[in-house]
Design a protein that fits this description.
Radius of gyration: 20 Å
Number of helices: 10
CATH class of the largest domain: Alpha Beta
Distance between the termini: 32 Å
Strand content: 25-35%
Number of strands: 17
CATH topology of the largest domain: FAD/NAD(P)-binding domain
Number of domains: 2
Bound molecules: flavin-adenine dinucleotide
Structural class: alpha+beta
CATH superfamily of the largest domain: FAD/NAD(P)-binding domain
CATH architecture of the largest domain: 3-Layer(bba) Sandwich
Length: about 325
């Protein structure tokens, strides 16, 4: 007999938005269950190992603007899961701090999830309204019945999930969600036989050509051996997304040659982020979809709401938790 879980709040997605919301809800005394289809925690904070090499292949760093978030970053530094990476690099004198996860970006997600119930490798296949409750069918055959629900997947995936339960959204909210757009990113993780030619601090952002970003995971302190992450530009990634991934990866490696110096690539893997960063975001920090409807409390959060970056996703999670707490 498959398990049926009962919880106050079901959160779909253990990325920054989901985990940040979960923390606030748990603090406020709610019983929370988080499910994520990914094997690891963190969503687009992603790390990978290839032999002795380690890579951050999703988000590379975070910036901190708002007071509460700055305070949380200070706590993470204190806890040893974050540190300042750099303030500027050659050609980019901009001096505000960029912080990294220690040892990798996913360390922050793991830290956020301490004392939390997260079902990993578990996809919410469908959701439906059952009277004044939400019911989610998970891909392991289990079900979750929840009083309130928060969905933090990229908005096109959220729309698909809402469609599984024929959940009708108010027209104004639907229009806002339909406007949100994302750009893709093809990410290459390449193991090298020697150090790159990238200058300290080991990061380069490019405005033109197929590459948008390069980071030297050895200099960054992520990898024990030379290893470079290469992000394709939005244009290159969109053009190559449905084509042969290894071939696209090789083209990015070829374009990266000037930054690799004499180092040769010994092995590489490629990951495609279909929804890498939002290019059109909603004006509100989250969306209480159930507002002025007969639906049980349902909120949407993620970087498409409070801004297309690490801090935005956290802020959105916090905002959604607050909105859900205000519902009955
Ligand atoms: C290549 C790349 C580089 C980036 N670089 C930076 C950077 O340097 N600095 C910066 O600030 N930001 C950067 N970002 C953006 C940053 O990573 C995101 O803004 C942030 O991580 C988004 O968090 P989120 O919680 O909104 O979404 P996500 O991290 O996408 O979390 C959503 C989660 O929902 C899960 N999920 C989806 N559907 C289901 C389902 N049906 N059932 C169960 N689980 C589900 C997913 O597995 C995922 O874990 C980058 C992103 C990418 C991809």
């Amino acid at each position: 007999m498959p398990l049926s879980h009962r919880t106050d709040v079901l959160i779909i997605g253990a990325g920054l938005a989901g985990l940040s919301a979960a923390n606030d809800l748990i603090q406020a005394g709610y019983n929370v269950l988080v499910v994520d289809k990914g094997r690891g925690l963190g969503g687009r904070l992603a790390g990978r190992r290839i032999g002795e090499a380690t890579f951050d292949h999703g988000a590379q760093f975070m910036t901190a603007r708002e007071a509460r978030f700055k305070g949380v970053v200070a706590e993470w530094i204190q806890a040893g899961v974050a540190e300042e990476w750099y303030r500027s690099y050659p050609g980019q004198p901009n001096s505000h701090p960029r912080y990294r996860g220690v040892p990798t970006m996913t360390a922050i997600a793991k830290h956020l999830a301490i004392d939390m119930t997260v079902m990993r490798g578990t996809k919410a296949d469908s959701i439906s309204q059952q009277g004044n409750r939400w019911m989610a069918m998970l891909d392991n055959g289990e079900t979750v019945v929840a009083k309130k629900m928060l969905i933090t997947s990229p908005v096109p995936q959220t729309m698909d999930l809402l469609a599984t339960g024929n959940i009708v959204l108010p027209a104004d909210k639907l229009a806002r969600l339909s406007r949100i757009q994302y750009e893709p990113c093809i990410a290459v993780m390449a193991v090298l036989d020697g150090p790159t030619a990238i200058e300290a601090p080991g990061a380069i952002s490019l405005e033109k050509g197929p590459i948008s970003w390069l980071s030297d995971n050895l200099q960054k302190g992520v990898s024990k051996i030379p290893a470079v992450t290469i992000h394709g530009s939005a244009e290159f990634s969109a053009h190559q997304f449905e084509r042969d991934r290894m071939e696209a990866g090789q083209r990015l490696i070829d374009a990266a040659t000037p930054f690799l110096g004499t180092a040769k690539v010994t092995e590489y893997q490629v990951h495609g982020w279909r929804y890498s960063k939002p290019t059109v975001v909603d004006e509100a920090p989250c969306m209480l979809v159930s507002e002025a409807t007969d639906l049980p409390p349902l909120a949407l959060a993620g970087d498409a709401f409070a801004g297309p970056r690490f801090e935005g996703a956290v802020q959105s999670g916090w905002a959604a938790a607050k909105r859900l707490m205000s519902t009955h």
